[in-house]
Amino acid sequence: MSDNSTEKLFQPINRNPKSVYHRVVDEIKKSIFEGRMKPGDRLPAERELAEMLGVSRTSVREALKMLAAEGLVSIRHGQGAFISEQDPDEYLKQFASHLPVNRDTVLHLFEVRKVLEPQAARWVAERASQADIQELAGMVTTTREQLGRLRSGRLSLLAGHDSNFHYRLAQATGNTVLVRLMHSMLDLLADSRSRSLAIPGRGERSVDEHYEIVKALINRNGDEAAAAMLRHLEDVEEQVVAAWRQG
After folding, report:
1. Domains within the chain, CATH numbers bracketed
2. How far apart are CA 23 and CA 16, in angstroms?
3. Which residue ranges does the record assign to the HTH gntR-type domain (predicted)?
4. DSSP 8-state symbol, 151
C-alpha cells in the first residue's frame, strides 16, 4: 500500500458513550470489509493512526490488541500491524458460529432474508447477464425433471436445489457482500430447511415458487421478481415455524 493512500483510509471518529478503542476496532473492521485494506496490508503506525482517527495512542494500542485476539490483525515486533491473511468469509463464519441455532434465530434470519432477497431478485432482473438468468432457469427445470424420475433421495435433491438456487441468485447480483451474507445465512438455516422440506409437498412447492421468480427474471420485471421472492420467503417461513412447533 502506498504512503499517499494512507491518509484516505481513516477519518476522525465521532465520540460517543461507546469505548473509544471499540470505535477504533469498528473503523478498522469497516476498512477491511469495504476492501480499503486487504490481507497483508500494513496498518499505519500507531501515532499516525491515532492522528487520523483523532484518538490517543493508548486507544489505538488497545484496539490492535483486540483485533489481534480476533485474528483480524497480526502484530509483528519491529514491523507493525498487518491485516491477517484470512479470507473475509472466515470472519463471517466466526460470527455465525456464535449464533445459537434456535427458533428465534431462524425467525430473525427470515426477517433479514425478507429485506435482502427481494431486492436481490430485483437487482438480478435489472442487471444480471442473460447467462446468469438462464442458469437459474436451468436449475429449476433440471430439478423438476429429476423429481419426476426419483422415488428416493428427493429430500436431499430438494435441499440441495433450494440452497443452490438462493446462493446462485445472490451471486448473479454481482454484490460480493450479499453473497457472503447469504452463504452464512443458508448454513445457519440448514436444519430448519430440512425440517420444512420434510413436510409433504413443501419441497415441490418451493421449486414451483422458484419457477415464478425465474419467470419474472426472464421478463426483466424487477417488481414482480421482488414480489415473487417475498411471497416465497413468507410461505417458507410459515412452514418452518410449523415444523418447529411439531418438534
Report:
1. 20-86 (1.10.10.10), 90-246 (1.20.120.530)
2. 9
3. 18-86
4. S
The number of helices, as runs of H, and strands, as runs of E, in the chain is: 12, 2
pTM strictly above 0.90: no
The three three-digit cell numbers of residue 205, written as one number: 412447492
CA distance 160 to 192: 14
Nearest 5 degrees, angle CA 236-CA 238-CA 240?
Answer: 70
Q: If pLDDT is split at 50, 70 and 90, which confidence band does 89 have?
A: low
Pick from 207, 201, 115, 228: which is nearest to 164 by CA?
207
SS3 17: coil
Grid coordinates belonging to 240: 418452518
Closest to 172 in 3D by CA, of 108, 114, 113, 129: 129
